[in-house]
C-alpha cells in the first residue's frame, strides 16, 4: 500500500461519509493511480437501494472515480492545496453490479490537461473481482 486513508485525508478535502477511497496501491505521479475502496455492507443507503437486492448507487461509483482522480492530481505540487471541483462526466458505462461487501479497484489516468484553466480529464474505471463494473471519463477543475 502506498497511501492509507489518513494519507489520503492529507491530500483531498473529502471526509466520511463522503470519502469513497480507502487506500492507494499504485501511483505513477501525475500519470496514473490505482486505489481501493471497501463497500461497507452496513451503509444505511442499502436499506433503500434496493431492499432485498442492494447495489452501490452509480453516482457513488462515479464519485469514487473522481476522488481517485483528485488524489492523482492533488498529490502533484502544482495542484497541492487546491479544491478539486468535479465539472464533467463523459462516456460513463455501468457494466456490472457493485454490491455491499465488495472491495473495488479504481483506476485513473490523466489523459487531457488544460494548464491555463487548471482543468484535467482522467480516464477512469472500476474493477470488481477483476471485472469492469464502471468506466468513463471525469473532468476536474482545481481552484
Question: What does the model show?
Answer:
The chain has 143 residues and is an alpha+beta fold. It has a single domain, classed as Thiol Ester Dehydrase, Chain A. Strands 1-2-4-5-6-3 form a 6-stranded antiparallel sheet, covered by helices on one side. β5 and β6 form a beta hairpin. The mean pLDDT is 97.
Keyword list:
143 residues, alpha+beta, Thiol Ester Dehydrase, Chain A, 6-stranded antiparallel sheet, 2 helices, 17% helix, 41% strand, globular
Provide a quick synopsis of the model.
The chain is of the alpha+beta class. It is built from two helices and six strands, in the order αββαββββ.
The number of strands is 6
Query: What string gives the helices and strands in order?
Result: HEEHEEEE
Output the CATH topology: Thiol Ester Dehydrase, Chain A
Net shape = globular
**How many discrete domains?**
1
**What is the rounded Rg?**
15 Å
Strand order of the largest sheet: 1-2-4-5-6-3
CATH H-level superfamily? Hotdog Thioesterase
Percent of residues in β-strands: 35-45%
Structural class per helix/strand content?
alpha+beta
Number of helices: 2
For the record, the CATH architecture stands as Roll
* Proportion in helices: 10-25%
Secondary structure topology:
Layout: H1 5-11, E1 23-28, E2 32-38, H2 58-74, E3 84-94, E4 103-114, E5 119-128, E6 131-142
Antiparallel strand pairs: 1-2, 2-4, 3-6, 4-5, 5-6
Amino acid at each position: 500500500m502506498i497511501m492509507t486513508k489518513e494519507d489520503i485525508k492529507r491530500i483531498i478535502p473529502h471526509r466520511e461519509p463522503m470519502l469513497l477511497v480507502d487506500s492507494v496501491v499504485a501511483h505513477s505521479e501525475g500519470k496514473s493511480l490505482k486505489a481501493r475502496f471497501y463497500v461497507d455492507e452496513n451503509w444505511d443507503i442499502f436499506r433503500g437501494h434496493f431492499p432485498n437486492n442492494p447495489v452501490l448507487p452509480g453516482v457513488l461509483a462515479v464519485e469514487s472515480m473522481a476522488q481517485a482522480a483528485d488524489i492523482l492530481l492533488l498529490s502533484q505540487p502544482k495542484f497541492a492545496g487546491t479544491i478539486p471541483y468535479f465539472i464533467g462526466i463523459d462516456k460513463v458505462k455501468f457494466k456490472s453490479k457493485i454490491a455491499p461487501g465488495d472491495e473495488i479497484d479504481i483506476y485513473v489516468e490523466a489523459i487531457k490537461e488544460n494548464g491555463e484553466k487548471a482543468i484535467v480529464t482522467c480516464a477512469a474505471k472500476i474493477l470488481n473481482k477483476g471485472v469492469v463494473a464502471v468506466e468513463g471519463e471525469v473532468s476536474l477543475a482545481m481552484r
